């Protein structure tokens, strides 16, 4: 059995069972997700790539299979053959009555006890195992849907997928949040964003996007922060700040409809039978000044020029039931590359897209400075050294047009859409200031 091709053994997946005929014979492979012994029968929920199907192993039907099934630990990998039987008591109305059962890989006694389930921290200590549960599985599949939905949107709209370096030499979002490391005989950093490289690429492809990890050495311990997260970023030549907000809105709406259409089972599982709300109305756009007024009216101790923290975002976004943009942030709250508003030099052509109902920022973007002299001046105004940004400045000397872009955190979008308690639930192996295992 060690050298057997199990892929060739299989004749159906779990999802195929519900469309097949009564008494049709099938062969399945997968894992024992759940097992229950009742009298002379063993009921098994088999998990495979596409979901679950109920198996019934009866002593009457196969003595050998019954004895084997009765002693199996959950999460053992097995191969089975049997016939399809309709039964309204079975999940989905059909089950497979087993005549042959083969153990491919036997599992030890499952260590995830009820006590483990009560502790989120312990659950993540066992993440390599707890990801097998139906909820984690559904979240991770739906997360895939967010990524594929974004890729679908960008490719339909003429964007080119590029890959940017992970090792960098200069900060994009501020030196305090850089992970520093030894790179042979010099120091380098883990990337905070692919934006600078995207800006170089737009002079080749006009519109580009990336889907890759970013790293932030922030010691934030909020529900919306990870030290490593999946970043969907886009940059486009000739687009204004208003244009890029239109792109962000279209992207979010497309992702939602893509999930409802292609990941309906996972969406309904996570939302108690409902689909995601699809938005027809335009996303409101309020200026930073108005957002400050709203927060002050709610008793928040905040002044003009302060940036929003997690608490401020939560309070502000609780005032909306639809995603909304906050625009025109003060220069002091944005990175140096943001273009100042020509009509008000104290604010930038920048924005954050906020998820409603307390979830807060899911994208951040704006119009970039495209003129060489303006960018040199802004870098110096921020107390930075233009020599550290040599190539990034140089691309402005060779036909850099007005352009805009944004970044979206996949885990934050997942937390909002699926009402998750923490962004760490939306990633395979979360990295936070206190967690680098497993």
Please explain how this structure is put together.
The protein is α+β, with helices and mostly antiparallel strands. The protein has 2 domains: 6-105, Nucleic acid-binding proteins (OB fold (Dihydrolipoamide Acetyltransferase, E2P)); 127-426, BirA Bifunctional Protein, domain 2, CATH 3.30.930. The chain is 31% helix and 27% strand. The chain is built from 15 helices and 18 strands. A hairpin with a 2-residue loop joins strand 8 and strand 9 (186-190). The mean pLDDT is 96.
The largest pleated sheet is described as: 8 strands, mixed
First and last CA, distance? 32 Å
Helix content: 25-40%
> Roughly what fraction of the amino acids lie in strands?
25-35%
Number of helices: 15
What is the number of domains? 2
Assign an overall shape.
Answer: elongated
- Structural class of the helices, strands and pairings? alpha+beta
Poorly predicted spans: none
At the third CATH level, what is the topology name of the largest domain? BirA Bifunctional Protein, domain 2
Quantity of strands, as a count: 18
Structure at a glance:
This protein is of the alpha+beta class. The protein has helices spanning 6-9, 14-17, 63-71, 114-117, 120-125, 127-130, 134-156, 195-205, 241-262, 264-270, 288-297, 310-317, 372-381, 390-394, 410-417; strands at residues 25-38, 41-48, 51-58, 77-86, 94-105, 160-161, 167-168, 180-183, 186-190, 207-215, 228-237, 285-287, 324-327, 340-341, 344-348, 350-355, 360-367, 403-409.
């Amino acid at each position: 059995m060690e050298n057997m091709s199990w892929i060739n053994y299989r004749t159906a997946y779990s999802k195929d069972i519900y469309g097949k005929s009564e008494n049709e014979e099938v062969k399945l492979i997968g894992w024992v997700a759940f097992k229950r012994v009742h009298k002379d029968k063993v009921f098994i929920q088999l998990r495979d790539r596409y979901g679950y199907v109920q198996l019934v192993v009866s002593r009457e039907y196969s003595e050998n299979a019954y004895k084997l099934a009765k002693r199996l630990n959950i999460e053992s990998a097995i191969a089975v053959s049997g016939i399809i039987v309709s039964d309204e008591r079975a999940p989905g109305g059909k089950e497979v009555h087993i005549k042959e059962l083969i153990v491919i890989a036997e599992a030890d006694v499952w260590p995830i006890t009820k006590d483990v389930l009560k502790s989120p921290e312990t659950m993540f200590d066992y993440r390599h195992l707890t990801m097998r549960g139906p909820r984690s599985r559904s979240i991770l599949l739906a997360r895939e849907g967010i990524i594929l939905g974004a890729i679908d949107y960008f490719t339909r709209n003429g964007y080119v997928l590029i890959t940017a370096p992970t090792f960098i030499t200069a900060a994009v979002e501020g030196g305090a949040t850089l992970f520093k490391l030894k790179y042979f005989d010099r120091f380098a950093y883990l990337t905070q964003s692919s934006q600078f490289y995207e800006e170089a690429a737009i002079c080749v492809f006009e519109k580009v996007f990336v889907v890759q990890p970013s790293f932030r050495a922030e010691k934030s311990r909020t529900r919306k922060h990870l030290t490593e997260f999946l970043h969907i970023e886009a940059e486009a030549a000739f687009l204004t700040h208003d244009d890029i907000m239109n792109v962000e809105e279209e992207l979010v709406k497309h992702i939602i409809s893509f999930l409802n259409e292609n990941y309906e089972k996972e969406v309904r599982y996570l939302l108690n039978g409902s689909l995601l709300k699809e938005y027809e109305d335009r996303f409101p756009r309020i200026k930073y000044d108005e957002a400050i007024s709203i927060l002050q009216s709610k008793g928040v101790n905040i002044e003009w020029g302060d940036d929003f923290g997690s608490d401020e975002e939560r309070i502000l976004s609780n005032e909306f039931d639809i995603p909304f943009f906050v625009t025109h942030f003060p220069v002091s709250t944005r990175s140096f590359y943001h273009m100042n508003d020509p009509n008000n030099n104290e604010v930038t052509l920048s924005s954050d897209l906020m998820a409603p109902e307390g979830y807060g920022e899911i994208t951040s973007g704006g119009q970039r400075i495209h003129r060489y002299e303006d960018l040199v001046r802004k870098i110096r105004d921020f107390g930075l050294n233009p020599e550290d940004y040599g190539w990034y400045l140089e691309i402005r000397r060779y036909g850099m047009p007005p352009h805009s872009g944004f970044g979206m955190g996949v885990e934050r979008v997942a937390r909002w859409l699926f009402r998750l308690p923490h962004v760490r639930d939306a990633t395979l192996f979360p990295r936070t200031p206190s967690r680098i295992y497993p």
